[in-house]
Amino acid sequence: MANALGLSIGATQLVATPDDPQSQPVVRSSILTLHEDGPPEVGVPSQPGLTLTGFVGRVGDPVGIVAADGSVHRAEWALTEAMRVLIADAVSSANFTAPPVLSASIPAHWSPQTVNTLRDAIDRVPAFAPGGRQLKLIPDARAALEALAAGPGTPDRGVVVVCDLGGSGSSITLADAARGFQQIGQTIRFADFSGQQIDQMLLTQVLTDLNQDPEGTTSVGALTRLRDQCRLAKERLSGDTATSVPVQLPGITTDVRLTRAELEGHLRGPLSNLINAIQDTVERNGIHPANITAVASVGGGQAFP
């Protein structure tokens, strides 16, 4: 029976995972939709409403998120509301016999002020303390290290490099394996290697192949749908050597072929820059490369070919 529920907070995805192996994780896009005549939704909305996005990366920003109707919403409120709905969805589908113990992994590069802002917002919502137990916030690098430590083949000495390859950027964390994976220095944020960046590169390639100007296409909705198709194609290329992207633009309905070699070409430059950033991080912390005993990749980008 499940008695704990863990959340993963990402810029592009929110995930709720019960500790019951018989239950499936609940995965949603980081989108909150408010409805006048119904409860809010998390993920791609089933019907039109007031949609809020980008709130994960703006927690603590004094400037609120401006919705389509002109209303302004604090990012931390939007995130806690999305978390509340996600928890409710997960609890309804899992086999909980009592209120679950809640925890959430948050971006490791967040400042203490950002973490405290989210903590304050969470503490104002009773749903985050089922049974009187407060939801625990854990840096995602720490959560990843704990999971690695529990698995086979993890080194018990030297320095482990954790690369979180996320939707909006990558994070680099160093940990001392001999000291219980204690973190070394600060987590470094590297914005120039991200899932969204690769999606945009593929979108540009598809439009170029169709002789369409990426800056001149006026149908925002059609471009958004095509970018989503490029993201799905990127994910398929993790296992396939080639795939097709269905294209529906004003006056154009066709398929565009993409190959893994083309995806690797897009990845080569950003990945090289990420490797340089890792080397810089290691050097700044006074660590000799010979002392690196493992490099672990987590996040959605770990499945890149």
TrEMBL record:
Keywords: ATP-binding, Chaperone, Nucleotide-binding
InterPro entries with a match to the protein in the record: ATPase_NBD (IPR043129), Hsp_70_fam (IPR013126)
A GO MF label: ATP-dependent protein folding chaperone
UniProt-listed Pfam families: HSP70 (PF00012)
Protein name: Hsp70 family protein
Organism in which the protein naturally occurs: Mycobacteroides abscessus MAB_030201_1075
Origin organism lineage: Bacteria, Bacillati, Actinomycetota, Actinomycetes, Mycobacteriales
